[in-house]
Amino acid sequence: MSFLVPCPHCGPRDVYEFRYGGEFQRRPPPTVSDQEWADYLYARRNVAGPAKEWWYHRQGCRRWFLAVRDTRTNAVLEAFWPEDKPEGAG
Ligand SMILES: [Zn+2]
Fold it and tell me: Is the pTM of this model over 0.90?
């Protein structure tokens, strides 16, 4: 399925120009137990609705950015550089 991903640098481009980098996860605090760390690494929420994800524009500016994508419709609601929103959005 093809849809547009709005690269913050290049603008909307076909999804095939990008590499999907997986769901964004906040780093855990430094005092987590081994089990909590394992949960962080392997647990994946299965979001039905807006999900914040990493995308890499491999056929464009070759930069990683974050996008909020509605997983039901593939509509990308927002895209931004990670340094612009250090706490994350959504
Ligand atoms: Zn780009």
Answer: no
Is residue 35 in a domain? no
Find the CATH number of the domain harbouring 2: 3.30.2270.10
Q: Is 67 inside a domain boundary?
A: yes
pLDDT value for 65: 95
Domain carrying residue 17: 1-26+49-90
Ligand 1 geometric centre to CA of 72 (Å) = 24
Mean pLDDT in each 10-residue stretch from start to end of the chain (90 residues)? Answer: 93 96 75 76 74 94 95 94 71
Ion ligand 1: residues, CB within 5 A, are: 7, 9-10, 57, 60-61
Question: Could you tell me if 25 and 41 are in contact, meaning their C-beta atoms sit under 8 angstroms apart?
Answer: no
DSSP string of 63-80, one letter each residue: -EEEEEEETTT--EEEEE
